[in-house]
Amino acid sequence: MSATTTEAARTQDVFEPLNFVLFLAIVVATLVGIPLYGYYVGFTLFDWILSGVMYIITGMGITVGYHRLVSHQSFECPNWVKAAILVAGGWAMQNSALKWGADHIRHHAKTDEEEDPYNATKGFWHSHCGWLFYDTPYRSQKYEIRLRRDPVVMWQDRYYWPIVVTGLLLPFLLGAWHGGWQGGIGAFLLGGLFRMFMVLNSTFTINSLCHMVGSQPHSTKDSSRDSWLVSFVSFGEGYHNFHHTYARDFRNGPKWYNFDPSKWIIYTLWLLGLASNLRRNDPTVG
Ligand SMILES: [Zn+2]
Ligand SMILES: [Zn+2]
After folding, report:
1. pTM score, two decimals?
2. How distant, in Å, are the alpha carbons of 40, 128, 209, 216, 240 from that of 205?
């Protein structure tokens, strides 16, 4: 009886004002500050190219590193390669790979249930970003046990905030090197802030739209869906129904023509001898 009461008391989510304020600041700075700066001062081609390159590097840091490597162990690689990929993922400011991975493992274990961190049955905004603003009692350490055995994951967790800062400093320094003080500000705004906002929304889209829009060719046991359209903004992770069905597969889009740049990067690393044991869970396709 007391155990039941304790469980009931622990089901309350607690609002996290700091997360909300930080997120709101990023949204306002991106949607209001950046267009105003663009109108009154302007951005250079260098700023836009840097933003695109940083978007791809940090986005793939999440999909290849945080998601397929750390959360699902869909391939293996030397520690220095893993460290490099997890630094790129840290630059996306989506928490350390340890915390992100534990949340994601819980998402797969409890999809569409109360314990699912981005439970899509609670609606678009909750699964997209609303879940970030609450501390949940379900963030149990049991989902971190396997991840904590990895020294590179623990190293990245310890230095997570310095890594985030270097990810914002890098575009500023490159911009300043290219165009002086003003060049630094423009490069920081597009290569730091804007690309961070875009990668955050790319990841959020997988948790929201990929559980709402598309088809279910592989399984109907949860709300996950395949959408080639979403794959274009999520580095190939739109084939989410396949992913939920064969979670350890290094591919999310299993067919050769599926747009899955994360799969292509992992395959390229394998060709270069920098990745091994690429896992294919579904032998019938691709
Ligand atoms: Zn999912
Ligand atoms: Zn996953």
Report:
1. 0.93
2. 32, 6, 5, 17, 11
